Amino acid sequence: MSASLELRRVSIALRGARLVSSLSCTVALGEVVAVMAPSGSGKSTLLAYIGGFLDPVFTAEGEVVIGTQTITGLAPERRRVGILFQDDLLFPHLSVGDNLAFGLPGGSGRAERRRRVEEALASADLAGFAARDPATLSGGQRARVALLRTLMAEPRALLLDEPFGKLDRALRGEIRAFVFSHARERALPTLLVTHDDEDAAAAGGAVVRL
Amino acid sequence: MKLSTLAAAGLAVLTSWAQAAERRPWSEIEIRARGQTVYWNAWGGDDRNNAYIAWVGSEVRKRFGVTVQHVKLTDTAEAVTRVLSERSAGRSEGGTVDLIWINGANLASMKAQGLLYGPFTEALPNFKRVDTSGKPSTVMDVTQPVQGMASPWLMAQIVYVYDGARTKPSDLPRSIPAMLDWAKRNPGRLTHPTVSNFLGVTFLKQALYELAPDPAVLQREATDAAFAAATAPLWSWYDALRPTLWRGGRDYPESGPAMRQLLADGEINLMISFNPAEAVLGSSSGLLPDTARTMSLDKGSIGNTSFVAIPFNAAHKEGAMVVANFLLEPEAQSRAQDPTVIGLLTVLDTARLPAADKALFETPLPPGMPRAEELGQPLLEPHPSWTARLTAEWQRRTLR
Amino acid sequence: MLRHAPALTLAVFLVPLGAGLVGTLLPSFGILPALGRSEFSLEPWRTLLATPGLATSLALTLRVGFTATALALVLACGFCALAAHVAFARRMERALAPLLATPHVAVAAGFAFLIAPSGWIVRLVSPELTGWDRPPTLTTVRDPAGLSLVAGLVLKEMPYLVLMMLAASGQTAARPMLAAARAMGYAPATAWAKVVLPQIYRQIRLPLYAVLAYSLSTVEVALILGPGNPPPLSVLAVRWYQAPDLALTFPAAAASVLQLLLVAAGIGIWHGGERIFQALGRRWIAAGARRGPAASVLTGAGGLAVTAGAVGYAALAGLVVWSLTAEWRYPDALPGRWSFAPWERLSGLAPALVNTLVIGIVAALIAGALALACLENEARSGRRPGAQALWLLYLPLLVPQTAFLFGTQAAFVHLGLDATRLAVVWAHLLLVLPYVFLSLADPYRALDPRYARIAAGLGSTPARAFWRVKLPILLRPVLVALAVGFAVSVDQYLPTLFAGAGRIATLTTEAVTLSSGADRRVVAVTVALQTALPLLAFAAAIALPRLLHRNRALLR
């Protein structure tokens, strides 16, 4: 079901000022490509373009292709591209379990959905957390739930917008390993934007500098 | 509505006198009335009035086999409009309105447009008990002769209300000139509603009655000359009075109820009212102290009469006449003067009643409720043109 | 559909507003086909200008409008300066909020009883301290100078401005800047006036103009607290509109147009004043004085503002006492006999209560739906409306109600809608919509847009993201905005009177009618109920999210 993620001559500009210029690259299955750039240089804008929610003040061109499908013209919800931000952004009105269930594609029965949520939680050492309020979780736990939620939707590619930026040192390595291993396990093409060399090195894939 | 009715009243020519007078013997009318249902169109905004009408209904059903259906109006003009539209639709009999509680502009308008049945009051056996000379408003409504087209029912008359706990009756002014001296001795303790309010202009009209060189002119349409001559003493009286009024005459309560609140709070000592039962009703509902009492002027005060009239096309004229006649029964009249029932004054000449009926009017009334005879001669309402001119002139003088 | 939301929303209030202005302007020049008059004439203006006491009316209107607005502003500034550094005042902020929700009529009626010569204050100190065994013959309410009217307006408008200022200073780094200024030796109030006020004034300018427009044209507060002889211009116009003599409609329309000109000129004058103050203020700030008379003025104003808040509550308390009174004679400090009997009159108020509830809820829901649609459309398209849109939004709050309601009513008559609840709802929407939108816009725009992106990444359509993610997270601000809308609807007097053709009674119309002198106990019950409704709405807006989100720490 997986396929590579490919950017073809992607350019983004804000009122005439180039932020990304004619970027092309391919992210293979299970590969984590790091996009490195200093803050405020349009890294997040690139992810917004791939995800399909670029602010209309920007002008952008170029194609984003997953496998053989060009997704650039699709509505964001039809692209099936998962994204993780620096903040976990767990929905504060839903329990941990419901946050995960939100990501699950519709159609399956209640018991089935529940089983899959429990299973996912257990895989992240979070068994029994389904009924918890996300606000009561530790930073590391929330980061793991956020990733699980993204994976529940069965994305075809993963976009990481400095997702480890706010974690403290000790946690950082652990969560990074957790995210990367899950991405590789599912053979997801993953694009990581960061300004941290350590993150880029840990990604182990190609490094693109804007 | 208001404008057109006033205009119609001005044109009250006797063109519509084509209607024949009621000449059938009363016994025949009573026989025809039996079994009829009378649709009595009457203002329905007061629970006590409504209960009284219901009592009348149960009595006439018992005594004469006439059923009364109270059609509750929010404005009497609704009934006038209904009759008018029935006539426009060519419905000259079998109309839906049998009896209307009416007076003032509505009565004048219906009469002028020939919308009433009659004259019929002479046919009512009880009409001869009405005090038509002592209470001229029973046959003369706002300067228009009623001419038997409506039967008098109850009377309202101007009274002045005070708090007996604060003011001794002997200190009270019993005439308009005395009121000025009294006000000077009690500065800030007298007021009247603003003159754009009905009760406010009534305060001036009452004063005008006593001060005008010739009160008879008030019954005729006011001319510039007549108005100037008649009101000159009024304005000199008022100019002297005004600085002694509540708030130095720079502000006036907006309405009668607002003025009543001032009396209840003790801000003023005396207030005018067109409701003889004002003091009693005010005390019983807690709006005025229990010690509220009424005072009247020695030379009498303006009174007006509520009538009942029968539309020209009423389906149940006989039943309507039976009800109108019953309303003049001493029993019905004495009951209505009880402030817990209605609290208005009788139109009958109680002095001429047989002893048994007279006794009905001597039953004790609550303190604060005056008897008709205590209020002095009821004076006729001036011609409407005086009201408009008084309002305009007062505004010109007081609004700067 | 969503794309048309802004246009639809603007149409909902601009069309009746525009039709209303035209429908008022024409009769002021003698044109009113409904009464068979179609010829241009200056007669209405001549009648208006010949009205006895018109000059006094105009002077009164202007004096009251400007004094009330300026006082409300100075007091609000004083309060905010105080709240910036005094913990007690900061706690008072919360206490002011319920006064904001209280209808104007309620505060006015309660205040009138408080300060009347036979009112509660005099009763509390008489006759022991004053020797007044009768009410003094003083003119403390409805005084010709309009002072009691000014005070009544300040009681209501000051909390509104305080709230607006606090919201505006929340968007600036007020706290560290104040600390910095004080570290440079500026006295607290001086620091606030020199550092915070210049930053927030721009944001409170429109609310301030709305206060000025309201103070220049209020009818319901003026009916209770203003002089009647002659009254302010707005009351004069409404008296004529309501007179049985239809010919008075023409001078009434002329008076309404004059009122509009007055408000426009008033805003212009205020704007000019702003420039002068700005220039003077800059010099004052640059002069570098660390303390001075301005600080004392502000501190005094802060104290006055706290007092005004207390007076507002005392006014409401007086009404509550009256609603439980059997008999309360002057000079007793409290009722001689207490009773629940006034509340038994509630059944008589049932129709007005039902109207108030239905109209308020429907208006708030429609306004809420339109505002949400506009904001969601804005979030999806990424296009924020410009500053002009804000002016448009404020337009119904700036145009005096007398200036358009007659024409709006005429339009409703054309549509066959007059005297229906729908017409009243629509008329209320003119004022409910702006307030709902303004109160919802900030929290809606502040919601992290990445929530919606996450949801899209998880396969949610924008609609699902709206219903399942945004709305639940924003439940509290949405409910608060609905409560604001409901409170604004409950507060409306003139729109109800006109659109309802006097036949649709709400608690507010009842309260105004009754407060002209009917049984004070019934007035108290009506007004207490009228005050309770918006407060209950706000309580529900705060309690409901707590209940629904009781296990969600971030949303309680």
Account of the 3D structure:
The complex is a heterotrimer of chains A (210), B (400) and C (556). By secondary structure, chain A is of the alpha/beta class. Helices cover 35% and strands 26% of the residues of chain A. Chain A contains seven helices and nine strands; from the N terminus they run E-E-E-H-E-E-H-E-H-H-H-E-H-E-H-E. Chain A has helices spanning 43-51, 76-79, 96-103, 110-123, 139-152, 169-185, 197-203; strands spanning 5-14, 17-27, 32-36, 58-66, 69-70, 81-84, 157-161, 190-194, 207-209. A five-stranded parallel beta sheet of chain A has the order 6-7-8-3-9, sandwiched between helices. In chain A, strand 7, helix 6 (169-185) and strand 8 form a beta-alpha-beta unit. The longest helix of chain A has 17 residues, at 169-185. Chain A is globular, with a radius of gyration of 17 Å. The model of chain A has no long low-confidence stretch (mean pLDDT 89). Chain B has 400 residues and is an alpha/beta fold. Chain B contains 14 helices and twelve strands. Chain B has helices at residues 2-10, 26-33, 47-64, 77-88, 104-112, 176-185, 198-211, 224-241, 256-265, 278-284, 317-327, 330-337, 355-360, 384-398; strands at 37-43, 67-73, 99-102, 140-141, 144-145, 150-157, 159-163, 270-273, 292-295, 301-309, 345-346, 378-379. Chain B starts with a helix and ends with a helix. Mean pLDDT of chain B is 89; it is low at 1-18. Chain C has 556 residues and is an all-alpha fold. The model of chain C has no long low-confidence stretch (mean pLDDT 90). Chain C is built from 24 helices and two strands. The longest helix of chain C has 39 residues, at 249-287. Chains in contact: A-C, B-C. Chain B binds chain C through residues 1-3, 166, 187-189, 194, 196, 246-248, 250-262, 264-267, 285-287, 289, 395-396, 398-400, and chain C through 52-53, 56, 116-118, 134-135, 137, 139, 142-144, 223, 227-230, 239, 244-247, 326-327, 329-330, 516-521.
Keywords summarizing the entry:
heterotrimer; B: alpha/beta; 7-stranded mixed β-sheet; 3-stranded antiparallel β-sheet; 12 strands; 39% helix; 14% strand; globular; disordered N terminus; C: 556 residues; mainly alpha; two-stranded antiparallel ribbon; 2 strands
